[in-house]
Amino acid sequence: MSATDMPTRTKAPLLSVRELKKHFPIRGGILGRQQAVVQAVDGVSFEVAAGETLGIVGESGCGKSTTAKLLIGLTQMDDGDIVLDGQRLGPDLSLKALRRDIQMVFQDSYASLNPRMTIADSVAFGARVQGLDDPQGRAHRLMARVGLDPDRFGGRYPHELSGGQRQRVNIARALAMSPKVVVLDEAVSALDKSVEAQVLNLLADLREEFGLTYIFISHDLNVVRYISDRILVMYLGEVVEVAPVDNIWETPAHPYTRSLFSAMPSMDPDNRTTKPPLSGDPPNPIDPPSGCRFHTRCPMASEVCKRKHPVLGRMAQGSPHWVACHLHDPASGHPKAVEEAPA
Amino acid sequence: MLSYFLRRLILVLPVAFGVSVVCFMLVQIAPGDPLTAIMPVDATAEQQAAMRAAYGLDKPVPVQYLIWIANLLQGDMGRSIATGRPVAGEVFGAVGNSLLLAFSAAIIAFPIGTFLGFLAGYFRDTIMDRAVTAISIAGVSVPNYWLGIVLVIIFSVNLGWLPSMGAGPGGSQDWHWDWTHIRHLILPAVTLAVVPIGIVARTVRALAGDILSMDFVQALYAKGMSRGDVLRHVARNAAATALSVMGLQLGYLLGGSILIETVFNWPGSGFLLSNAIFQRDLPLLQGTILILAMFFVAMNLIVDVAQAAIDPRIKRS
Amino acid sequence: MAQVEAELHPQAEAAPKPQGYWSGVIRRLAGDKVAMACLIVIALLILSAVFAPWLGLADPYRGSMIARLKPIGTEGHILGTDEQGRDMLARLIYGGRLTLFIGLMPVVFAFFIGSALGIAAGYVGGMTNTIIMRVVDVFFAFPSVLLAIAISGALGAGITNSLVSLTIVFIPPVTRVAEAVTSGVRSLDYIDAARASGAGALTVIRVHVIGNVLSPIFVYATSLTSVCMILAAGLSFLGIGVRPPEPEWGLMLNTLRAAIYVDPWLAALPGVMIFATSLCLNLLSDGLRSAMNVRD
């Protein structure tokens, strides 16, 4: 895959991530030598257009959250490039500047707020650090915008708020920096279903109002489908499929995506699959399987899948649907490749 | 088990190295020239220089350390400035007496502390618990050198029951296992036992209380197990932690006996140490501290390994 | 927005008035009778030591050969006189000055130095952590009494030397606690969130770390004061702390030892002061620990 031919649907992406890599060393033994490497994120590339929402899904441990932390430099990447608005992190763009333009909302609403700081101070902190004008005013306006009366809530401490209220505070805090991109890492996963819906609606409204771009990470496929324009599927630190939400929903191409979707409970009795959902745990990322990393659990696996690593490519010429599977590559040598691949 | 022991042993080496550096530094931070005590007052500059060279003091400090450690590994800890005798012999004799005192104190302290702590933990929030808590707080708050004086006042001065000085009749320094000598051991050992009684009681109380309130104890009762059997289970669970606290306390007893030995003129390492300090006998000070600290390091290692042997969960972490 | 309001309202009515953490701690501590009694005793000791010259006491340095070792309750010397005929009451009260100073200041110094080291080690991690904590491990290999006596013994007697040696003794335990608490806080999302807003390490530590780690470190440090008191007086008792003729409880205990056959209870008096102070410090620290809900 060449750098100019990236999985995106627009010509000028706002954020483009190339070959992101993060390996965590495991130390042990008598002298604490490096014993093994966890390939948490291994060559992840994607692009996001301005105003778009990219959903990232995958089982726990697939590298979704590490990808999120790499995006704002909370975890230092081993290799790869992050280009925001045409500026490359490092040569053109400082980490501090990147962190103003990309903000993050975490899953645990309580742990992500300083328990000794009032809500208003927490929201204003980032703006103060970045030297933006009137941090306190910004904080008050944003609190009001996310539905928290600044006069009533501003002086309170996190433990005096409900989970939904705290997550609103976290959203306000992220927006206080006037970011271009907001990374939402399981941001609604810990909330009650009714509160989750309200926060999702709020996020959708804010996206329109502030022209935000979201990277929405979740294990909940229904939520991701609701909010996303495109969905990216990760498996063991790699991207296995990227496509617009309708494409991937109607014709999931990768066997992993299919089993992921079939594991979802359906409301439609006619649409219930009888196929067994994905069984077993994902293999250990310390020692990922050879060839295609999914071959150990794939119902379609053949000899070639054990040997050859599939490359992320378009389903068809000009298609916005990308997949990394030998089934969809007529030249791969997979016995079922030709019949499976769409014309 | 053996590999765990080896792993811990290798982790101990840098600590032992650090301890040796600290002990070496003790002489370096001491004010004044280490040779003034043995140098004749009217020594000429040449004589002084010759003396410095003889003791290796003309070399850079890291080289001095290497020479010192090399001698140390061959069992040569230098000579006492005050007596001229080899430090090693003096220290080991004294450490033997200190160990005797420390073990005696431990034999008094650990059963009493465990018993009190267990009572308090088992009868939590009763008058018993409060009494034991009061005793243990008093135990850890008392300056034991003062307690030693008070015990001397009561049992030696007022009652005349027990001797207050030395390890044997007439301030004798030689130990024998007979009643006349054991009488000398009683007061210092009891004095030294007070702090660990408080600490052990506090630890065991917390352990017993925590474990008794844990789910598995309820499950044991629910299974119809008798009170005595449940107690046995609880005791085994607490043993690993209690053991580690006691092992460390034994180390502290050895190091902490210095003040008590001074009070009772007990011919142990602490007594030696205070003499070394008083006479500014730095090699002796250095050697005594080093041996005591190394004992403590070894004690830590033994505690760790023993703990892992009792509680297999520890080995994995 | 109606739904939002529905979510906010019940919470809003039930939510308590915003109140600081410390007002709760003070309220709980004030309700603890034992801790308050100890606080009063310690406050009285400190006040009497500070204002000793204005209390109309006898001169603590002036002795009298004819008035040596007068028993407790003697006319004009309510607590008797010492082996040089100096007034015991005056010496005990003046003695509080040095004893409390040398007994408490090392913990204060160690609190600041150890917190700084521990927070740095816990926040930065990596090599910095390894270096700081391995050095701390070495000092942990010495029982505290031994280390204090070793350093004081090498440096020689004197107030400054005692302060230095005791500070060195208490830095490692404070550092270890500070490092543990900081590592715990460091892994929380609000630190990541603060870093993600572009704040530098020092800003994050100042604004988000210190406030959340200092109180457990502080509570731990208060638990060291009693040991430090006993050790400080112990150094003077051994003759490697305060030099005579300064009044200091440990030194007084030492010089009065010869008098145990003449008037044993008089000789034990300075130790009563050390014991009472250290007991109060321990009980107050326990009270503070439960008032601040710190679990060990």
What does this entry look like structurally?
The complex is a heterotrimer of chains A (343), B (317) and C (296). By secondary structure, chain A is of the alpha/beta class. Chain A contains 12 helices and 12 strands. Chain A has a single domain, classed as P-loop containing nucleotide triphosphate hydrolases (Rossmann fold, 3-Layer(aba) Sandwich). In chain A, the strands form 2 sheets. An 8-stranded mixed β-sheet of chain A has the order 6-7-8-3-9-10-12-11, with helices on both faces. In chain A, strands 2-1-4-5 form a 4-stranded antiparallel β-sheet. The mean pLDDT of chain A is 83. Chain B is globular, with a radius of gyration of 24 Å. Chain B contains 12 helices and no strands. Chain B starts with a helix and ends with a helix. Chain C is 72% helix and 0% strand. Chain C has a single domain (42-58, 79-292), classed as MetI-like (MetI-like fold). In chain C, α4 (88-124) packs parallel to α7 and α8 crosses α9. The two termini of chain C are 45 Å apart. The interface between B and C is large, with 50 and 46 residues.
What's this model, at a glance?
Chain A is of the alpha/beta class and 343 residues long.
The shape of chain B is: globular
Q: Radius of gyration of chain B from the CA trace?
A: 24 Å
Unreliable stretches of chain A: none
Low-confidence segments of chain B, given as residue ranges, are: none
CATH architecture label name of chain A: 3-Layer(aba) Sandwich
Task: Note the run of SSEs of chain B as H and E.
Answer: HHHHHHHHHHHH
Question: Total number of β-strand segments of chain A?
Answer: 12
Largest interface: B-C, 50 and 46 residues
Radius of gyration of chain A equals 21 Å
What structural keywords apply?
heterotrimer; A: 343 residues; alpha/beta; Rossmann fold; four-stranded antiparallel beta sheet; 22% strand; C: 296 residues; mainly alpha; MetI-like fold; 11 helices
Write the layout of secondary structure elements.
The complex is a heterotrimer of chains A (343), B (317) and C (296).
Chain A: E1 15-28, E2 33-48, E3 53-57, H1 64-71, E4 79-84, E5 87-88, H2 95-101, E6 102-105, H3 119-129, H4 135-145, H5 150-153, H6 163-175, E7 181-185, H7 193-210, E8 213-217, H8 221-227, E9 230-235, E10 238-244, H9 245-250, H10 255-262, H11 303-307, E11 313-314, E12 322-323, H12 337-340
Parallel strand pairs in A: 3-8, 3-9, 6-7, 7-8
Antiparallel strand pairs in A: 1-2, 1-4, 4-5, 9-10, 10-12, 11-12
Chain B: H1 2-29, H2 45-54, H3 61-73, H4 87-122, H5 127-141, H6 144-158, H7 179-212, H8 215-222, H9 227-264, H10 269-278, H11 282-310, H12 312-316
Chain C: H1 2-14, H2 21-30, H3 33-50, H4 88-124, H5 126-140, H6 144-155, H7 159-186, H8 189-196, H9 201-238, H10 249-255, H11 264-291
